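Justification of resources, computational component.

The compute hours requested in this renewal are based largely on the per-chain cost of generating structure records like the one below. Each record pairs the submitted sequence with a full structure-token output. That output is archived, and it is also reused by downstream analysis tasks.
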Amino acid sequence: MSRSIVVHLVRHGESLWNVEGRYQGQQDSGLTADGRAQVAQFGEEFAREVPDPDVVVSSDLPRVRDTAQQYIGRVGAPVSYDAALREMSVGDWAGMTLEDAERRHPEIVSAVAAGEDLRRGGGETFAETRDRVAEAIERVIAELETGEGDRVGVVFTSGNPIRLAAAHMLGIPSPGHMALGAPDNCSVTTFRLRDGRREVVRYNHDIAPARPADQREIS
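The structure output for this chain reads:
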């Protein structure tokens, strides 16, 4: 009998810098009032969809931890934290708007827009971020594979890690994530492993009301 392993990736709720259109990276501006209401509704509804997860892992960034807590508090599952699931670091660009970056670093903004994978503000490249995120996802999968029967994992993270993880699961070489839009706040992206195949069965699925993600956003 074939078995399936399902991994749900959840993006954090709406943060202040998401609303203000600021690069956020590994800094944290906290959830907005709407974001707090959003993650509470998400937690309630997702707990009905996935009431008994086998593994729950979260980024250790506050906006992600706060989102995860609304779910794990309802299902009573233990959660582990993995810094490898953090958003891509944008170094000292954190807190800047795109307009700020264009004014201060026009050559870098232009090069990135043309498809170059450069470090912004002394942070990470997308390729570097993809490597650590892919390793984190593979650790979750390996843990799920140790059990018997069908298994389910839930991973709480940020927008770019979700895009990069989806490209990884689809086997699309870097920078394959560029074809994937930015996930909305509290959206769910789901992978399934079955009969030796890896599938992305849904992407950017909204469960709680979400403000559509800005494609320029570093979440």
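The longest helix spans residues 126-145. The chain is about 40% helix and 20% strand.
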